[in-house]
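### Sample
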Amino acid sequence: MVLFLCLLLFFTTTTLALNTIPPGQSIKDGETLVSAGGSFELGFFSPRNSKSRYVGIWYKKVSTGTVVWVANRETPVSDASGVLSINHNGILSIMNRTKGIVWSSNTSRNAVEETIAQLLDSGN
């Protein structure tokens, strides 16, 4: 019975965190978010023949990894030290090794409730 409850807790926690980033949390290079239906994936990637790292959204079920959106197209991270996070004001940002912001959503609003970043099955 205890083993069942431990497994249930593990899978519940993993499932809840699968497609969202709550305020104050982050994903590191090598970690990804997957939309609830498994259609899209968000994470860091490098184009072919490049060491530069970008945050993008790609089709999860397509073997070629077709990227459909890139956040930091003009300002890549130079290595695998990147971190994507959302702050309590709802601003998404990508930071490099020195914690310098290389990209941000540059939007803020006075939210009544905490904002989360969520990857939907529409790719948004």
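Confidence is low (pLDDT under 50) at residues 1-17. This sample (Bulb-type lectin domain-containing protein) is used throughout the tutorial notebook.
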